[in-house]
Amino acid sequence: MFSENDFIELCNIISDSQEVRLYQPKVTGNDVRISQADRTNNILEAEGTVDIVFRFHNEELIISNLFLKHKGRGTGSLIIEWFVSFCKNNNIKKIFIRIVKKDNIIMDKLCKKFGFRRVDNDKDFNDYILELSKGNAFNR
User: Fold this and answer.
1) Is residue 58 part of a domain?
2) SUPFAM superfamilies in the record, alphabetically (predicted)?
3) Is the pTM of this model over 0.85?
4) What is the CATH number of the domain that holds 10?
5) What is the mean pLDDT of each run of 10 residues along the chain (140 residues)?
6) What distance, in Å, lies between the first and last C-alpha atoms of the chain?
7) Residue 37 lies in a domain
């Protein structure tokens, strides 16, 4: 569906604002990983580094990892803006951010800022959904 070249701009945004050197985006089927190092999907290993994992399924983008080394630099907003624009340009109708710890106040605020709807996942985690086909704050 997509190639590594589709995500170079996103890598540049992250590299500049996080002051890190990232691996070339890895695209395997519908899965994409942008990271500072070769990592597993282990949440504990990803914290303190840059690690973003997402996949495309039908007309949906599912972000399963979104870890940044430096917080409070606006990188999260730049990433979400990039994803929204990319999805609109590629007919992706929904963006899911999956398995966010309930005590992650920064991510909760970021998702609310862009009009994501919070969905209880279980006692420890939430999911967030943004439907691009409906009227929300970020549809322009």
Assistant:
1) yes
2) Acyl-CoA N-acyltransferases (Nat)
3) no
4) 3.40.630.30
5) 83 89 82 72 54 90 88 92 94 93 91 93 89 60
6) 25
7) yes
